């Protein structure tokens, strides 16, 4: 039986963050290298690792994250191997090098605690998206893991002069330096996006990337609630 399951065993550590299969994240934990992870995402760990839900360092930054109930992140610290997952979603690992990325809050799985981060309102979209769209901007040098409902596509917006249009419910992440604006479609509501009536898309332009998942996720997109 051990031989039959050998192909699923943990592999040697090669980086701080890496995939174990498509849908699981493996993090090499060490003292002084704390991690912020989505609350409830831990599926297994080896060694001695402690968890602090809704840590004070994150509480104020993410007070707008959902409904004022606190930040949906936990602080992980200790030594060992930590495995994270999000209901079978694909995991994408990003190594930032003095760079930044804007991630939809529902797609943010984990990131190094020393990185600078905050919840920001997407400019240029409020009048199209009701009360606005809020994303988490992570910047610095370190590791970030995001999720995608299926294998994502990464669009390079700098390859041409045309804008890139994305259904907001399929948007995962983008380069914060991109210009963003809304586009409303009155006659294509039944063809673009979910539901009937008018639909809107997010238009990106400039130098940078946009990450799009092959699923229109209808969960909370960090819109401010009344």
From TrEMBL:
It comes from the Bacteria. Transmembrane segments: none annotated. PANTHER family: ALTERED INHERITANCE OF MITOCHONDRIA PROTEIN 24, MITOCHONDRIAL (PTHR38074). This is DUF124 domain-containing protein. It comes from Streptomyces filamentosus NRRL 15998.
């Amino acid at each position: 039986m051990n031989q039959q399951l050998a192909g699923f065993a943990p592999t040697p550590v090669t980086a701080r963050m890496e995939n174990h299969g498509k849908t699981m994240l493996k993090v090499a934990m060490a003292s002084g290298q704390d991690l912020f992870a989505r609350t409830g995402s831990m599926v297994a760990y080896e060694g001695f690792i402690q968890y602090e839900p809704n840590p004070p360092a994150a509480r104020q930054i993410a007070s707008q994250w959902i409904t004022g109930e606190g930040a949906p992140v936990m602080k992980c610290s200790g030594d060992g191997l930590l495995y994270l997952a999000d209901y079978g979603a694909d995991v994408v690992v990003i190594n930032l090098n003095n760079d930044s990325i804007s991630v939809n809050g529902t797609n943010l799985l984990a990131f190094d605690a020393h990185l600078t981060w905050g919840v920001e309102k997407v400019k240029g979209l409020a009048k199209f998206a009701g009360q606005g769209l809020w994303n988490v901007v992570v910047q610095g040098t370190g590791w970030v893991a995001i999720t995608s409902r299926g294998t994502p596509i990464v669009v390079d917006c700098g390859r041409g002069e045309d804008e890139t249009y994305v259904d907001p419910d399929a948007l995962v992440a983008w380069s914060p330096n991109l210009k963003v604006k809304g586009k409303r479609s009155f006659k294509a509501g039944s063809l673009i996006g979910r539901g009937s009536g008018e639909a809107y898309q997010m238009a990106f332009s400039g130098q940078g990337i946009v990450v799009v998942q092959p699923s229109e996720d209808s969960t909370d997109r960090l819109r401010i609630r009344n």
